[in-house]
Amino acid sequence: MTSTLPDQRAGSRQARSAEATPDVRRCAEPGGILWESTGLVTFSLTTGSAFLLQTMEPSIGAVVDAHSTFRTDPIGRGLRSLASVMMWVYGDEESLVEVERLREMHATLNVTDENGVRHTALSSGPWAWVLLTGVHAYTEGAKYFGDGTDLDVDGMYEEMKQLMRGFKVAEKEIPPTYADFVPFFEQKIAEQLENNQVSQDFLAGIRHPGPPLGTPALLKPVWRLLTNPLGYVQYLATVGTVPQVARDKLGLTLDHESGAPAPPAREGRRPGGAAAARAAALPPDRLRGPPVGA
Q1: Helix pair 178-191, 153-166: axis angle to 10 deg
Q2: What pTM value is reported for the model?
Q3: Alpha helix positions (H), the chain
Q4: Pairs from 149-156 (Cβ < 8 Å, separation ≥ 24)
Q5: Which of 89, 80, 168, 164 is nearest to 122 (CA)?
Q6: Which residues contact 3 (CB under 8 A, 6 or more apart)?
Q7: CA atoms of 253 and 261, how far apart (whole Å)
Q8: In what helix (H) or strand (E) does residue 120 lie, and over which residues does it extend?
């Protein structure tokens, strides 16, 4: 089982873990940073990097490999995940009911890998990592697809801490501030994440998403034709916003198919991200997000 990263602040962590976890009435507050950004169409462009980082975590990768339907029902699996995320943010007190549903569903998900190591979905480190990758997704989303204003990273991180507490993440797994999170996140990627078959299959799936279950054979070529451009955009956004160290572990560049090296990083938003942000801001509020978040 993957253990929690060693921490130089072990003493303070132990002291914090002894404190009572603050009561949480909902996973996210109306009008907050998560509330304002999660329902946008552009949200999906950076959540791909969070999902990819999750699959690279050994315990999560092992459990997903054994139990997930992302290979056989990618569209259904994606829509269910999206609907659940929207409940976390917009479900008010019902968000905690959704969390309990997820915890009950994951309680029985376990697997023993080829080395005899047992992995369980609710182990504290992997369970926390699922939410911690969201911090990266929100910062990358604001950087490349935001409205041009600087993201209040400390405020966003406080909201993510509330979300993690709603998910009953152990306090010892939550870096106390965003400044503490950054080195924790970088060390986790460098020392614990790995390239594996689940990660590669996930990348292949977002580049060429399979049709919904039950799609007639005659319509599958039409599906591929229609989704190929969308898959390419999602693939580029995922690969482009995942940290460089993770990209190196996966053997990826921004132009994976041609093998060309990735273009040099640029400060601020990329032109395509700025265009996507402007386009997402044009429609009325109810049309700016996916149907489940409207």
Answers
A1: 70
A2: 0.81
A3: 10-18, 33-38, 43-55, 58-67, 74-90, 94-106, 124-145, 153-166, 178-191, 197-207, 220-241, 244-250, 271-281
A4: 151/33, 152/33, 153/178, 154/178, 155/32, 155/33, 156/33, 156/34
A5: 168
A6: 125
A7: 6
A8: strand 118-120
Q: Which of 241, 281, 228, 206 is nearest to 46 (CA)?
A: 241
Dist. CA 143–CA 151, nearest whole Å: 8
Using CA atoms, how far residue 110 sits from 56, 62, 167, 270, in Å, is 17, 8, 19, 41
Measured at the CA of 43, the angle between CA 149 and CA 140, to 5 degrees, comes to 50
Tokens of 139: 């910062």
Could you list the pLDDT tens digit for every one of the 294 residues in the chain? 443 444 434 444 444 443 445 677 899 999 999 999 999 888 888 899 999 999 999 999 999 999 999 999 999 998 999 999 999 999 999 999 999 999 999 999 999 998 999 999 999 999 999 999 999 999 999 999 888 788 999 999 999 999 999 999 999 999 999 999 999 999 999 999 999 999 999 999 999 999 999 999 999 999 999 999 999 999 999 999 999 999 999 999 876 444 433 443 434 444 444 444 444 444 444 444 444 433
37 and 277 Cβ atoms separated by less than 8 Å: no
Q: Which DSSP category does 211 fall into?
A: P
| CA end-to-end span of the chain | 39
Q: How many residues does the chain have?
A: 294
Alpha carbon 77 to its chain centroid, in Å, reads 14
Q: What are φ and ψ of residue 275, in 5° steps?
A: -65, -40
Question: CA–CA separation, 44 vs 134, rounded Å?
Answer: 12
What residues contact residue 128 under an 8 Å CB cut-off, 6+ apart? 164, 169, 170, 173, 174
Joined together, the tokens standing for residue 105 give 């569903």
Angle, CA 65 vertex, CA 193 and CA 241 arms, to 5°: 45
